[in-house]
Structure formats: structure tokens, C-alpha cells
Amino acid sequence: MTTKTAHIALYDTLADWEIGYLLVELRTGRFTGTPWNVVAVAESAEPITTMGGLRIVPDQVLAGLDPADSDLLVLAGAAHWDEGGGSAWTDAAQRFLDAEVPVAAICGATAGLARAGLLDDRDHTSAAVEYLMAQPGYGGQDRYVDARAVVGGDVVTAGPDSPVQFARATLSRLGLASEQTLQAYEDVFHRADASAYPVLMQAH
């Protein structure tokens, strides 16, 4: 079976913690039994520096990214989203969605998708509806869901305080684990519920 691939958007001030849970579960497959390739993509070949100060060298550049070669695009928060930037990445998200490849966006990345009109016709969430309503071009308030993470067709969204729920929702959208396993995952990593750990360990 061909190993599936997740492409991770890289840019300076990337919010490390927001996508950490998801990346670990995708790459290791430790609770799904299905390891994925994790490929880092940036607008140039130069290293980026995350919000936590880690320097990361991209595996490839955005110009060469074809949704046909991917199974998921992951967009983390970063300073540029709140500065009105990120259009290269929302253009990429549009290409992925046109190709019916899922896009998972958290924190500021949801603002970028909102500005691009990519949330108007899908259920979604973010830090708060007011945050998205402040974005020019956003018209999706009727589809806003007050939840930690939301799957709206091919788009997964979450606020900055919900990295575990973001991972859970994305794994659910990808069909990588049962709801029982995903509930146990959230119980362990969000609620520190030790009683859920045996369920998680029996996942696959």
C-alpha cells in the first residue's frame, strides 16, 4: 500500500504547538497503525524560524507543490496571517480543495481562509467568530460553529487553544481511527484521563 503524504506549510513565526500533536500522530501512526510521510513546504528553500525559535529547512518549495501528490495540507498559525498575509497559502488551499484534497487550518490560518472566502460555505470554527468577522471578505458567520475543532467537508478548522482537538478532527476526517480511539486520544492528551490509556493502546 502506498504511504500517504501530508504537506506542512512552513513560514516564519509558525506556531509550533498548534500542529505538534497532529504531526506526531501522522508521522508515527502510533495510534492509527498507518504512518504517513510528513513533508515540509515553504515559499523558498531558505530555513524558517518558528515562534518557538526552531529553524526548519523545507523539503520542497511551494511552487512545486501539486495537490495530486498530496493527501493533506496543514496550515498553522503565524504572525503573517494577522498582518493580512498568507495569500500564497490560501491560493494553495484553494487548489487543494478544488482537487478534493483536505486542508487543515488552525488559529491565524483560519483568518487567511476566511479572507479568501473558503469558509463561507462550510461549517468551521476559529478563536472566535468576532475574529473572523474582522477579516475583509469573510461572509461565513452563519456557518460558524462554537466548538474546539470542526470538520466542514474537506476543511478542518480549530482555534489556537485546541491542538489536541485539531489533531483528533483531522485524523477523523482522514478516516485514520475509530471514534472510540479518537475519544480516548482526547481523553488522554487533553483531559489527562489515565483510564482512557488502555483503550488508546488497543487502537490497532
UniProtKB/TrEMBL annotation:
InterPro entries per the UniProt record, alphabetical: Class_I_gatase-like, DJ-1/PfpI
Signal peptide segment: none
Keyword terms, alphabetized: Hydrolase, Protease
Organism per entry: Jiangella mangrovi
Gene Ontology MF terms in the entry: peptidase activity
Domain DJ-1/PfpI span(s) in chain numbering: 5-171
GO BP terms: proteolysis
Name of the protein this chain belongs to: Putative intracellular protease/amidase
Stretches assigned to coiled coil: none
